[in-house]
Design a protein that fits this description.
Blueprint: H1 3-6, H2 13-19, E1 29-33, E2 45-49, E3 54-58, E4 61-62, E5 65-66, E6 70-73, E7 78-81, E8 94-98, E9 103-107, E10 117-120, E11 125-127, E12 141-145, E13 150-157, E14 163-170, E15 175-178, E16 192-196, E17 201-205, E18 208-209, E19 214-215, E20 219-222, E21 227-230, E22 241-245, E23 250-260, E24 263-273, E25 277-280, E26 293-297, E27 302-308, E28 316-324, E29 329-333, E30 344-347, E31 356-362, E32 370-376, E33 381-382, E34 385-386, E35 389-390, E36 400-401, E37 407-412, E38 418-423, E39 434-442, E40 452-461, E41 470-471, E42 526-527, E43 534-535
Length: about 575
């Protein structure tokens, strides 16, 4: 190795960390209520469109009937859309954004009687005609596998009155059924599934089992070949709001519904999964709810969830966002080399105190076997020499050193890419501090006398993921609901290599949570006037005595034990939420 580069590998990362420990304020994660009241209906499908920076929702159920409502969230407002043609009315469709093809994929729903695959490109819906596809179903879950560039679909409720646990993958043209060896998740519906970049796998959480008449707590990851069981939830849940936060490298979950032998409880907890499940406490948070729209807003760097149902309010139309009060940020700067193969830096997470921070070198020549990640505390001076520094002095004209060399990580590259991870110290004083990075590779195909390739630079601001942390709750624990939020929204950049521009979104005032404690769940009721035997929740807002909402449970004798039916009372217009088509 060239002597000027060999000295780069001798610094310790602790020295870099010491340079960024300057004053910062205590911070925490926080929920903030948006100034809008037109969230999409419950039981809709939802997916974040990365190309256009909006959360797309479709379908749902209103007044017990499926709808074809379509809305998009841009970080400030929900917009109604009415494109023609479009999918028919349906509840519980599975949706995911296909980043490789730049379109949202929708499959199934109820009361659809034949399997349907649709795609939305931001302008038009197109019904696909794949040679093979999953059987008709609703309540399935879908997520995009970034490593293999396919949409994965798992499980769902099927017409037989039972559940499915098959795995299908969509490549933009056709569905392919997978046959995983070994253990697999049991059949289920009303579960949630997201891509977990830290695991490089799709993660399935919870769901409802028709034969058991119970919700589930198990968690599984799918890597394209086999299933791996992950740490289970502290309690069972279905229909939760869920996303993956790539800035902090964790799955985030809010709310959901718990069903135990037919008895139902709405949940209001916020949980996060990294190596284990942890419950977060915030000054304010959404009311307990389930079946709302949800996604990760990669423009503003926050978890967004809107709408849903609750025992107390029946139909919710509010929208909430969740993010650290002191978020980590990243800004690209400078120019590496002018005669290179286009090597780049890509952030797999953002820097938060006490958490792993992963950064990758990508786009290098396949002949490159080694890369260096340079960390520095300054982008203006290194050992008395002004930056940027022209590397023509070492035989690399058109290349520049953009950051001081205070620490270096060696990265092994395969196929032109590789990553390195290090954990920032758990030092509150580091919050708000800045550091800089740049990638350098030894490229035997470079035309330069000294054969290197260099990326542009990155300026990072260190964030704090939460103020307090306590162990995950018992299965019957619910969060408190008192106190207003104490922050104003800010904006930052998307994560994937900082390829997206600043959001440009305007700050907006956070609204306080709805006053008053949650009254707790009413006793379960079963409405059997149509011989369907499903659990329901009334959606008539004028009726304070509400029933529980359905997860389209089968009639007694098809997996549920028959329970005594409570004495019936009169309800206006019998407006019941009956999600799912008649299995009777």
């Amino acid at each position: 190795m060239h002597p000027n580069l060999s000295r780069l590998a001798c610094a310790a990362l602790s020295s870099c960390a010491a340079l960024i420990l300057h004053g910062g304020a205590e911070a925490q994660v926080a929920w903030s209520q948006a100034q809008t009241t037109n969230a999409p209906p419950p039981f809709c499908g939802s997916a974040w469109d990365e190309q256009r920076g909006v959360l797309v929702t479709y379908g749902g159920s209103v007044g017990g009937a499926p709808v074809s409502t379509m809305r998009e969230w841009d970080g400030a407002t929900w917009t109604n859309l009415s494109p023609t043609p479009r999918p028919s009315q349906r509840g519980r469709p599975a949706m995911a954004y296909d980043a490789a093809r730049g379109e949202t994929v929708l499959f199934g729903g109820t009361p659809i009687t034949a399997p349907e695959t649709w795609t939305w490109d931001g302008v038009n819906w197109t019904q696909k005609a794949p040679a093979t596809q999953p059987s008709v179903r609703f309540g399935a879950a879908a997520a995009y596998d970034r490593a293999r560039q396919v949409v994965v679909l798992f499980g769902g409720f099927v017409p037989s009155g039972q559940d499915a646990n098959d795995v299908w993958e969509w490549d933009g043209v056709n569905w392919t059924q997978k046959a995983p060896p070994g253990a697999s998740p049991t059949a289920r519906g009303a579960h949630r599934m997201v891509w977990d970049a830290s695991r490089q796998a799709v993660v399935v959480v919870g769901g409802f089992s028709t034969p058991q008449n119970n919700t589930l707590s198990d968690v599984w990851s799918w890597n394209g070949v086999s299933w791996t069981q992950e740490p289970s939830l502290p309690g069972t849940v279905c229909d939760q709001a869920m996303c993956y936060d790539p800035t902090r490298g964790r799955v985030v979950l809010h709310g959901g519904l718990r069903i135990t032998n037919g008895a139902q409880t709405d949940l209001g907890d916020t949980l996060e999964l990294d190596s284990s499940w942890t419950m977060r406490t915030t000054a304010a948070q959404p009311l307990p709810r389930s079946a709302g729209a949800a996604g990760w807003d990669d423009v503003r760097g926050e978890f967004v969830t809107g709408g849903g149902t609750t025992a107390a309010l029946a139909l919710l139309t509010d929208t909430w966002t969740y993010r650290p009060v002191a978020p980590a940020t990243v800004t690209p700067f400078g120019f590496g080399c002018a005669v290179t193969n286009g090597v780049q830096l890509e952030e797999r997470s953002l820097p938060y105190v006490g958490l792993p921070f992963e950064q990758a070198i990508v786009g290098a020549s396949p002949a490159v076997a080694l890369g260096l990640l340079i960390f520095g505390g300054s982008d203006t001076n290194w050992l008395g020499t002004p930056l940027p520094l022209d590397l023509g002095v070492i035989g690399a004209p058109t290349c520049s050193l953009l950051t001081s060399v205070d620490a270096v990580l060696t990265v092994v590259l395969t196929g032109g890419q590789g990553s390195a991870t290090w954990t920032l110290p758990s030092a509150p004083a580091a919050v708000g501090g800045a550091f800089f990075t740049q990638g350098v590779v030894i490229d035997p195909l470079s035309p330069l006398p000294f054969p290197i390739d260099a990326t542009n630079g990155r300026r990072f601001t260190i964030g704090k993921p939460e103020a307090g942390r306590r162990s995950a709750p018992r299965p019957d624990t619910l969060c408190a609901l008192d106190g207003p939020p104490d922050r104003t929204r800010t904006t930052d950049r998307r994560v994937r290599g900082c390829r997206g521009p600043p959001s440009g979104g305007r700050p907006r005032r956070a609204l306080p949570a709805r006053p008053g404690p949650h009254p707790g769940p009413p006793r379960p009721r079963r409405d059997d006037r149509h011989g369907q035997g499903r659990l329901h929740r009334a959606e008539d807002l004028g009726d304070a005595r509400v029933d529980r909402h359905a997860v389209d449970l089968p009639a007694p004798g098809r997996g549920h034990p028959r329970r005594p039916r409570p004495r019936r009372r009169e309800r206006p217009a019998a407006r019941l939420l009956q999600v799912g088509r008649d299995r009777g």
